[in-house]
Structure formats: structure tokens, C-alpha cells
Amino acid sequence: MSGFDANPFENPVEVNPFQDPSVTQVTNPGVDHLQQFNPFPASDSGALTGTTVPASAVPSQPAVLQPSVEPNPQATAAAGQANLLRQQEELERKAAELERREQELQNREGTTGKQNNWPPLPKILPIKPCFYQDFSEEIPEQHRRVCKMIYYLWMLYCVTLFLNLLACLAYFTTDSNHGMDFGFSILWFILFSPCSFLCWFRPVYKAFRSDSSFNFFLFFFIFFAQIVVMIIQTVGIPQWGNSGWISAVSVVTQNPAAGVIMLVVAAFFNICSVLAVILLKTVHAHYRRTSASFQKAQQEFSQGVLTNRTFQSAAATAAQSSFQRN
Predict the structure, then answer these.
(1) In a 3-state reduction of DSSP, which class is residue 131?
(2) Which pLDDT tens digit goes with each residue over 117-149?
(3) pTM check: above 0.70
């Protein structure tokens, strides 16, 4: 029962909180607490070891402003000339690389057996074919039919020119005053047969083969002129060497046999003219579905001219002669 002897209601012991040592140490005015404060305890002083370098020990140099130097005009001109020479050497190197690749391609075609096969001449003749032509290999399928139709039109036109020669010969045999028509018919046959192949069939063939904008525009320009010539031949102006409708009708009354031949030739010329107009529209429709354009044609023309060795040699000769004169 001794635990219950103490009276809890007795006067408590008077305790002065300001007599606590920690409080009296802080409130003591004679102590400089900032000097006694150590943010790094003694337990961690061994881990933080190092030396401090005073700022005065670091060598310093004053900032020096470099004066601006104006470029010399002669140095600028020399640098520009060197740049031009470097660009010229680069262009010459690219041209030589293109020529080398073209030569390798030609050699590869020769070794793989891809030889010229048109015109199909007998092997006993000393004249060899001049072109390689294969519709199934070189022409895309979507353009193959149109390209073949143009080829068949060229063949029909050559046959018509030969028949025109025979009709003018028959006309000349009936009337010796029409020898000029026979002479012009020979000229038209010799001139238009190869020229039509070279001037408008080969361009459209190469245009469909490689999607060449320049060849497309070349075909349009020359083939339009060919259509005009076909229409003139269909009309048949006398003394022009064409067995057209006017010449055939004028001969029927004089010599029916020669007149019938000339009417047949006039019908052939008419068919060629109609087919040419239709094929021109068809080729133009195919052209619009391709990536060809006038700007691309200009680029192809400029690149073809600049990479042509004949043009380069002529330009170099002209430049050398102008420098010599100066």
C-alpha cells in the first residue's frame, strides 16, 4: 500500500525552465554562437578532405580583342577563280564518268548479244542494221499497242508512196506532159520513207521506251508537219507529184485505167491522214498520263547538249579563239 501514500495534490516542485543548461548557453550574451557553429561534425571531417585554392593563385590574363581585317579584293578574286576552277574540274569529272558508264553500257550490250536488228537486211549484204528495235522488250505494256500502231502507219505510208510512184508513172505513160509528177513522186518516195522513220517514229519509240519528254515534244512537232504533208498529198495538187483526189478525178476522163489507180492512191493518202490525226491524239493522251513535261524536256535538251563531245569541242575552240583575239 506504500504506493498510495504519496499525496498527488501536494505542492509540486518549483522548476525554473530558464535554468536549463541548453537555454542558458544560448541566452548567454558573452558567447559568439556563429564562431562555435560547425556545419560539418567531427565524425564527418575525415570523409571531407581537400584543399582550397585561393582565388589569387589562379593565373589570369587580360582579354585581348582581335582587330578585324578587311578582305583583300585580289584575294577575293583569287578565291572566286579557284572556286570556279574547282567547279569546272568537278563538271569535267562528272562528264568523263557519264561517258565511261555509257561506254560500259554499250560494251555490255555488245557482249550480251543485243545487236542492231533493224532494218532486217540479209547477212550477205555489206550494209548492217542501224537500230535495235524490240517492242516486247523495250516498250512498256501500256504503250506497246500505240507504238506498234504508229509503226504500222509508217509502213502504210511507205506503201502509199510507192503506189503513188506507180500511179504517177502510169499517168506519165498516158500523157508525156506529166513527167514532172513522176519525177516528184520518185523524190517523195526516196525522201519521206527514211525521213519519216527517223524524224517521227524513232522519237516516239524512244519517248515510250525511256519516258523522254524531249522526244515526245520532237514527235509532236514533226508529226504535225507530217499530217499537213499528208493532207496536201490527199488533195493532189497537179504538178506536185501526188496522186490525190484532184489529179485522179482529172485523169479518169482521159484514161480510166490510170485514173482508177490514182483514185486508189488518193484513198490510201486519205486513210493515212485520218489515222495520223487519231494516233496524234492517242499519243497525246498517253503523254499526259506520263511524268513528261516541258521543263523536263528543257533539262534533257540542256544535259544532252552539254554532254555532247562535239558541242564541247566546238565551245572550247570558240572560247580559245576569242581569248586569242583579246
Answers:
(1) strand
(2) 888 888 888 888 888 999 998 999 999 999 999
(3) no
